[in-house]
Each structure stands twice: as structure tokens, then as C-alpha cells.
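As described in the Methods, two query proteins were run sequentially through the folding procedure within a single session, without resetting any intermediate state between them. The first query and its resulting C-alpha cells are shown here.
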Amino acid sequence: MQNKGAIRLLAILLALVSIYQLSFTWVVSNEKSKAEEYAKNNPSKTEAEYLDSIAGKGVYNFLWLKDFTYRECQEREINLGLDLKGGMNVILEVSVIDIMRSLANNNQDSVFVATMNEAIRSQKDSQDDFVTLFAKAFDKIAPPGYNLASLFINPDLPAITYNSTKQEVLDIIRIETDGAIDNSFNILRSRIDHFGVSQPNIQTLDRAGRILVELPGIKDPERVRKLLQGTANLEFWETYDNTEAFEFISAANEKVKEMQALKMDTSKTAKPELVAQDTTKSEVALLDSLEQPKDTSLALLEKLEKDTSKEAALDNNFAQFEKENPLFAVLRPSVDNKGQLLKGAAIGYAHLKDTAKVNRYLAYKQVREVLPRTLKLIWEVKPFAIAKDGPKEYLNLVAIKVTNRDGLPALGGDVVTNARAEFGQDQAVAEVTMSMNAEGAQAWARITKENIGRQVAIVLDNYVYSFPVVQVEITGGRSQITGNFSIKEAQDLANILKSGKLPAPARIIEEEIVGPSLGNEAISAGLISFVIAFIIVLLYMLFYYKSAGLVANIALITNLFFIFGVLASLGAVLTLPGLAGIVLTIGMSVDANVLIFERIREELTLGKGLKLAISDGYKNAYSAIIDANITTLLTGIVLFIFGHGPIKGFATTLIIGIITSLFAAIFITRLVFVAMLDKKRKIEFATRFTKNAFKNININFIGKRKLFYVISGILIGLSLFSLFTKGLNQGIDFVGGRTYVVKFDNTVNTVAIANALAVEFENAPEVKTYGGDNQVKISTKYLVDSNDASTDSIVESKLYQGLKPVLGENVSFDDFIKNYRQSSRKVGPTIADDIKVGAVYAILFSLIIMFIYMFIRFKNWQFGLGAFGALVHDVLIVLGLFSLLGGLVPFSLEVDQAFIAAILTVIGYSLNDTVVVFDRIREYVREHKRGSRAELYNSALNSTLSRTFSTSFSTFIVLLAIFIFGGEVIRGFIFALLIGIVVGTYSSLFIATPIVFDTIKVQDKVKEESTKQYLGGKKKDKKS
């Protein structure tokens, strides 16, 4: 074996990387176990409090390289998808329509209105972005010579003039809309970061204006909807100076101390404007107050600085200090090294984990009574570090001054007409230039004149984004904001400032909620199916290949280890379809080992020695292994590109699994065999039961091809008949709508539920048993076209009212949402069209790519046509069976994204089988040139039967285990794969090769006729 040392080194390095990456998952799991034990031993405490307390502490040191905090370990662990741990998955679409109208200053010009309406109409059937659609609609509607620039000329867009060309106008509009979308993304990210969700995920999608948000463990979906769909609220506030506000905070500290000393009842607190919780766990409270404080002195300050130093924190006396100064123990005042109050609006700072306690103290009614009405305390949005290169885990608390009786800001954000990032005069640091309209400029001049030398806070969504110092009175409405910004920070602030002028509300176009109990069931079912499938494969390989099977099992276990290691290193999310992808990979990874082992058995049959047989077996199997895996890899890539949501997870694990299984099957097994040969260990490739399996079989595949053509023709005919008459049960992925999975205490009648809900939903929804007799899946299109933010709540309320007679009078709405509704999903019509188009493209591209690959690889169009014909055959029969069996089997056969993933996987698997057969045919034709084509083809097919059986059987058994034990969620998906395995194996043997045989036969006949005609013509010429 060449390069044995390099391969061994690579295997060791890959193993070490996998161990390193997976170790974080183990550490997090171990800390969570400690948290459970902590909460169990301390009834007044929670697991979350324990985990928050160690978030910034070192909990893991890998080989003494670095001390990782718990939060850093969390960021590196394998993330479970929402279908495995419960939560809320939302796709939002930023309203570019509203942005365009705002850019045009709500222009009521008939051409603009008609163009917008046409663009909105065409959006339903197009994949183009809205600006492109607007341009096309303008070309269609505007009269000849109409100037597009005239629709957008206003003071807010100075770059557009009457001389601007159409393309220049569109470029400016695109820049403005992209900026508004980016700003919406940043605002959403900020809101989510402060919402209190562990490991949230937010990312932009390929389609402009769409944002994916994943929030694990959400218990109040309605609060999330309001948070995500709310328009940004930009405000400018005057501020108190730290020297002015400190005495108020000191008085609050004394009041908290007094309350704790008297053990007063602090449960009756005034309601904060937002829920007061840890910023790592939920929104930060915006706290205002009531009356003037008592006079206090700064005498406390020196003691505070002394006692809250690092040394004091480590000292046992800190507990006494905390007792005497409960507020200052968690909110450190802004002072210098000498204990003197710093100038500025920041009155103190707190660690992220302590903000909850600060908010709780300041929200007490008794504390609020000692604070002035004119004081608001708002957290800064951006955390900072108190030590050089330390973690950014501290937030400033800013003192906001209320200057009017209504509690309104000094200036609203809607007066900002433009803002942009640019470099200052020295070109070293970036700054932000801001412009205001006439009304805003007048108010801004007054505010800046009254606050020279003080800070003005820029507040968005009740968080301080910046609080620059006013240097001079600013007239004319044009300001420069400086602050040692990086260009990215300046761009972000500019976008924030523009959010007041360009409101870009984000609307939920797809939503999925998975309850924690359903997530736990999915994990349990997935793990059971995973373990059973894995054990079956291990036992089968031992039974069929004996000691060589043991080597294959070592490779399988190693492969599994590598898959999870790579998933962890990439930060990939493991979903239930992804878990199915891993299990499927295990079944398919057997194929490479089977191909190698069958080749080695053939070499041994020829009388070669063991060492030479192993060497030649690997060498001769490479071609088929590479071809078979490349085709499946191409399928995975197509799935990843066109897939959506969990299907991308399936594609990710499939791609990773193919690559790692190739490495394990080819190199790991070879290293083990080399080691066994060096130690002169006995290696056997069959048991006494399988030694002669599939030998001396001589099926006349080519001779009986017409019979199989007839069988396939009948199956395809029935499939087409059912597809045209009965059709397919399209899921909401393709038609839009809402689905709810509801679990009841007792067995329920689906017809009665449908009739009860028909009253609420105007039309009867589709109600099907889902899993057990006490669980149903409800599908409806009620209000799916509505863009109103409250629609989802209305539908949920009507669902509850309709189900109330079945649930019982004692079940409240909150109980229903938390305990009975297992999951829900909403897909808007726009994204449903996109999913449908993407699915069609995915299947067509897969078929075309496979045809091209086969043509290039075998340099013969007949082989490409044979593979293409077999794939079309497989797809039609799987579609037909889904149509025929719909409503006849006790599980859902909806055609959704998962089904499309199954179809593409079947395409890859079927081609995998076909490629192996074609590879053997090519070899036989090359080596046995004297035999007839029919004999060579039959011999090639018969010689691959052992491999075909082993691979198909092991994969089928694996899928059967998932089908039985994997749970209701993926049962339809796995059923499609099961059908595909059977049909794909059949077509690779009885359809693909006969098509190749017949097309080559026809071609040879045409050539023969052409030759005869040519020779006959030459004879006539000679006679004449």
C-alpha cells in the first residue's frame, strides 16, 4: 500500500480533530447535568440560573491550550434542529413594497400606483426581486418617454435628479432597499440577542429580503411574533450626567437595602415597560420613575470602589458588602481610578448575567418612588470588556432625561432623511453624516444648543445605540457623529438612523413551531431507529463477510465518528431528516466495502494469493466506487442548493457522510488489512453460509427484457392514470396554508373535529389521524393570504374555540398552546410558489446532471440514455404509488419538501446501482471482445448480483428500521425511500442495461444498413 504513512497520519489527525470538536458537546452535556443536580438540591434556584452563572467562566481546558468558557463551549457543540429539541422556526420577508413607497414619498402618481400594483401581481409567479419586477412593470405601463426619475425626486433622495437615467434610478433604489433590508436584519438580530433564547440562529437567505430565525425552547410564540414583526422605533433623547444622576441611584441602593433588611414584600412591583430579565435570556427592562430622591453623599463611593475591586470580590467580606449595598454589588458606578464620578450619561455598568437583578431591584415600587419622573434608565445595546482583550460581557446603563409631560423623546426618528458612513477629515476613522428635514432641523438646533457639552442618546427599540457628545449648536439639520468608529460600525449606525425614515416591517411568510414534548419524542424515536439500524448493518456484515465484515464494521464506526466530528466543526445543525441522512449514509457506505470485498472474492476465486487478491480487489473496485459515490454526491449538492429548511440538513449530512464513508471504506479498511497481513492474521471474506452465494447464477436479463418492459409499462401506465385522475396530496409547502398537530387526552373522531372547526374557519379543514388515535393533524388555508401581524393569533384562537368541546371546559387557551398543540406550521403563498419552483428545478437539474455525467464518464450517449430512462422510470413509479396509496395507508403521503428530497435521493441511489452495473459491462466489453453483446451484458449483470443484493438489502433494512421506529414526522419521507430502493434496484437490473443494449443494437443496425447502401451504390457505379 503506497503512502501508508501519510494516510495513517491523516486518519490520526482527522480523529483528533473529531475528538476535539465533539469534546465541547460532552462538556456542555456534563454542565447541564450539573445544573439539573444544582436545581434539584436548591428548590429556589433554576437550571438556567446555574448555567448563566458559569456562562463567562472557564469550564474546559483542552490539552492546556485554552480555557474555554461555558458560552464558548455552547457555540462549538453540535446543535440540534428545532424538530429535535422544540422551538420556533420563522422565515420573515422584509416589505420591499413599503420601502419603495417610502422612497417615492408615498407618491400617488397614477403611473407609480399602476406600476406598483403590476409588480405586486407579478411577484406571485416570479422568482425575481421586487426592484427588478418594478422595472419590468414600469416598462409595461409607463407611456413612451416617461421619466422614471420623476417618481422618486424628493429631498430625501438628492442623488436622483431629472437627468438621472432609468438605470441610475434603479441602482439607487436597489442600494437604498438593500440598506433597509440589512438594517432590518441587524435590528432583528439585536432583538433576538436580548430575547433570552439559548443558541438562537438568524441568517439572511438567498432570496433578497428574506431572513431565517430559529429560536429553540420558545414558550410564547405570540410574543415572538410581535417582537419580530414590529416596526423599528428610533428616538433621540436628552440625558442626565452621571454626576447628576448618581445620587438618585445611591438612594435606590439605600431603599433596596432597607427593604431587604425589613424583609418587605417585594412581590407587588410596578409593571416595567418590558419584562425585566437577563439580557442573555430576554428583553432588558426600560425603567422610568416617579418622585425626587432624598439627598445622599458620595461618601459611599470610596468604600464601594474599595469593596468591589477584584480582590474584594474574592474576599469573604464581599457577602457583607452585598448585604449593605445590594444594588451597587451588581451595578458598578462609572468612576475613575481615584473613585471620582466620570462625566457622561453612563451611570454604571453590570455584567450580562447581573442585569436581571439590576432590573428587578429598580422595578420595585418602593424603589421607583425614590427616583424622579424625568429619569429613564436604558441599557446600551453593545457589550464591552472591562479588561484589555477580556470578554465583552458588560453593559452600560444610560440615564435618559424626560423633558416633557407626555414622556415622549426630544425628537422622533422619522425626521431623519438620510444618513451615511464616510471618513472624516483625517481619513483615519469613520464618521456618520446625518441629515434631517426642515421640522427636524429646527428641533435639532434647539436640542443641540441646550445640550452643548452633554450627550444625546440615539435609542432604537428601547436600546441605546450611541450617545455622542454635542460639541456645538447644529443648524441646517446636517450633523456629523464621530466616535472612533470602524467603517462597519459607522455603516451600522447610519442604517440605524435611516430606519426611522425607511420603515421596513418584516412579515412572517413561513412559521413552524415544535413543542418540547414532540421534540423529545423525535429524539427518542430517532435514536432508537439509529441504534437498531446500525446494529443490523454491523451484524449483517459479520454474517456475510466474517472477519472482513469485522474490518468493515470498524470502518463504519470510524465513519460515524468522523461524520459527527465534521458536523460539529462546521457548526451544522442536526435535524431529524439529517439524522435520517446519517442512517441512510450508514446503509449506503456499506456499498463501497461490498464492492471491494466482492472484487477480492473474485480475485481469490482466480487462485491469487491473499495479499495480491486484496491489492487487486481494491484497485479494480476504485472505478465503480468513485462513479457510484460521485452520482450520489451530485444529488446531495443539488439538494443543498435547492433545498429549504430541514432538507438542507439532510443534504449536509448526506454530503459529509459520502465523503467520510469513502475515506473510511477505502483507506481505513486498507490500513487494517495491511496490519492484519503484517501480523499474519487469518482474513476471511465469507462464512460457510455465504461462500457460494450468487455463484453459478445465469439469469438471461437481456433475453427477458421485453417482459420487464411490459411490467414497467403497466406500472408507469397505472402511475400516470392515477396522477392525472387522482393527483397528489400536495402539502402546504407547495400550496400554502397552516397545519397544526394536536394531541388529546383520549381517542378523537376526525370527522367531528373537522365539522366543529368548519364553523370557525368558514370551510372545513382537512383533519387526519397523526400517529396515535388521540393525535390529529389539521390543515387549513384560513387567512393564509393575510399580511396582518395579528392573523396568526386570530387563527390560533379560532382553533382553540373549535376544539374546546373536545378538549374540555377546564382546558384554558394557555394550556392548549403549551400542552396540547404539539406543533404548528404556516407557509405563505409566495414562499410556497418558490418552494414548488425550486423542487421542479431540483429534479430537472438532477436528471440533466446525471445524464451529462454518464455521457462523459462512459463516452457513450447510450449509457447516458439508459441511466436517464431508468431514473425517469423510478420517479414516475414512486410518484404514482404515492398517488395510488394516498388515503389507503395509515400514515401521511403528502408531497412536500421531504418527498422531493426522497425523490432526489432515490435518483442518486438508483444511479449508484446503475453505474456499478455499467462499470462492469464496460470492463467485460474491454476484456472479452469475442463474446456476443448479449452474453457479455448478462455476465456483467449476474456478476454484480451479490453486490446489488448486499447493498440493497442492507440499505432497505436500515430504512425499514427508521420507518418502524423513527416516528410519524418522517414516516412518509422514509416510505418514499423504501419504494425508491426497490424500484431503483429493479430498474438498474431490468431497465437501464436493456435500454443500452437496444439502442446500441438499433445503432448497429442503422450502421449496417448504411454500409449496405453505400456498398450497393458503389457496385452500381462500377457497372455503369
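Immediately afterward, the second query was submitted; its sequence and C-alpha cells are:
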Amino acid sequence: MKKLLLLIVVLICLGPPALAQDEDKGWGIKVSGFVKTDIFYDTRQSTASNGLREGHFYLYPDNVLYDEDMNDLNANPSFHILNIQTRVRGDIKGPDAFGARTSGAIEAEFFGTGESDINGFRLRHSYVKMEWPKVTLLAGQYWHPMFPAENFPGTVSFNTGAPFVPFSRNPQVRFVYNPGTFLSLTMVAYSQRDFTSSGPDGNSSKYIRNSGRPGMHLQFRLPAGDNLTAWGGVDYKVLRPEIKTSANIETDATVGSLSAFASLKLKAGPVNLSVMGVYAENGSDMVMIGGYAATGTPDPVDLSREWTTLNTASFWADISTTVNKTHLGIFSGYCKNLGAKEPVDGDFFGRGSNIDHLFRLSPRIMVTEGKLSIAAELENTLAAYGTTQPDGRVADTGSVTNMRLLLSFIYRF
């Protein structure tokens, strides 16, 4: 089945010569992508939850783990070479429909859908877009609206700044209103697919599906001349962690989460600066630390539970410049566990509930000749682990640090 899917996608991406199409001259596909080899060395261990796909999508180092002689087992290095970020994309254009200019895109990679599916062909983006003079409508899988698609860090690492940067792709309907003045508005209704929330039955999209409502997002875009653009937005989603309690009685308890962000992009001559601040409630589906937890005592009769969000604040900045064929940049990020709204009873669902804060500093260099780029990045990530308190905050912390040396070869087509 996977081979059949791959064949279909390749045939589509090859365009009209490979598949019989309508002879309408307004139709066509532009194929692009890249082949990427990542070679990386880590000074500290990371489990699958902290370094996805055998450490390729790196988040943060593992906590200390002592053996009987009090040696920290996680203070051991690792090395790997992977090509799973290799990507293919087809940008589709077609004739006008319903008075709108139409287009679409299909994008996939070999990242797989889980740890057991490394090298597996995975859908990234798949959408149709309709553009009128002042309105754009997009339906399909695309970046989560909290992800800064026009302003993301230029890291060499595939993590693109996660877990400091909200990172997710979601099936969605996106409505953009641009009256042609200085301000545009975006409204999004979304679900979850590859990037899902955690819950009593593990990670799954069923928690948002069972809530019976999509996640909702409202965002503005404010350009100030050609060199400065600002964004801001609010996001709200509702999860239903359980349909029935452990007593086999139906429960309709839900947990709602409100998140917000502000972002700024500045171009000053040859220098580009991007900054973003994020407040996230239950942000684990966006590959951030946080989540939600049970609060209070279960009902003595039906064992139903109430829920509260685990909240996070994050800030990052990325500065870069390009001189001739050489790109130089540095990324820095900090995120802080803000605890829970209500006291928790110990049942946590999400990521990093025993982490107080994270910090990263990663300088990079990339040299490009034609379609080939060779890049290096030194990614230094600190995680402060401790003991989770009844309010969801973390005390008595101790820090561990990983230094990742990454060398990449990227060949674009």
C-alpha cells in the first residue's frame, strides 16, 4: 500500500507528461524539493519522546539516570546519520473557479508517522486555495496558525526552533480577509492529525474529535512598510479526555485551553531579525512543553474527573545575514513552565511536566553553490528538571545540557 501511494504521488508530481490531464492550458504542476543528509553528534542521550525519530527532531536532553555506582547513564554521547527530511513538493495551478484564482499543493517527506515508521512516506501539506481580490480560502492540511509560517527561524536542524516555536501541521479551513489596507485578518478552524494531544489512552486526535468542535484561531497581520511586519493571534481548543470513567459511566468533562502569540519580523539592510513571544495552555500538540492534568478528587460515585491546563511561556529570537554565498545566523530560545490553573492530582498528560525551564543557543553557517548547500550548526540545549508541585510548577531543579554538532548536505531541485 505504501509503495502504491508513493507511485501515485510521484506520477502526480511528474505532471501532465505522466498522467493524462485536461488540455486546459491554465493547468500545471511545478515540482520542487530537496535531498538532505543530516550528520549529528550529541554529548547526551535523548529518548524517543525528547528526540523524535532516533533523535533527528531534537527537543531537549534526558534527565539524569544513575546506575548502582551513581554514574549518570544519560551522560553518554550518540552519533547518527539520517536522510528522512528529504522532501518532494508539487505546486498545482489551475483555471479560475467561482470567480477565484485556484491553486493547490502536495508536499511529503520520508520522516514517517512514528518511531516504527522511520523512512516512511508522510504527508506534510495537502490543500486547495481559492483567491479573490480581498479574500483567500484554504482547505486542507497546512501549518497550524500558531506556527510563524512567514517568520520562522532559519535553523539547520529540522526542529525549526521547537519546543520554543509552536510546531504543528493540521487539517483546517483558513479564511483570510485582506481589504488592501494596512491590516489583514485570518480565521482558522482546525482538527489534529499527525500532531495530536496526549490523554489517558496516549497521543490521539480523538480527544479533540470527541469534543465535537474544532480548534479556533483568530490572527492579524500588520505590515509597516517593506521592512517591518507584525503578527498577533489567539487560539482556543477544547479536549474531551474521556467518554467514560473507570467506573464505566459516561462523562462529558472537557478541558479548554487559550493560547496567544505576538511576532515581529524586521529587515535592516543585510540583517534579518525575527522574534516571537508565546503563551500556551496545553501546548503539547504544538511540540511545546505543557499539557493538562486531572484536578481535585474524583467523584466518589461515578469517578468522574475535572481537568486543568499546564501552561507555558516561550520567547525566541533569530538573527541572520547573507554575504555572497554564505549565510550566518544564530537562534536563541527560552521557555518557562508556568504551572496549572488549578491544583493537580498527579495525572499529567503532555510533555515535560517535570521541567521548569528550557534554554537553547544555536549558531549556524551555510555555504551555497548553485543548488547545493553545506551547513553546520552547534545546538546547545539546557533543560532544568525537578520535582513537580501540586500547582504544576517545578521546584528543586537541576540542569542538564546537550551539545549537538550538526552537519548537513542539502541538494535542491
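The mean pLDDT is 93. We note this only descriptively and draw no conclusion about the first query from it.
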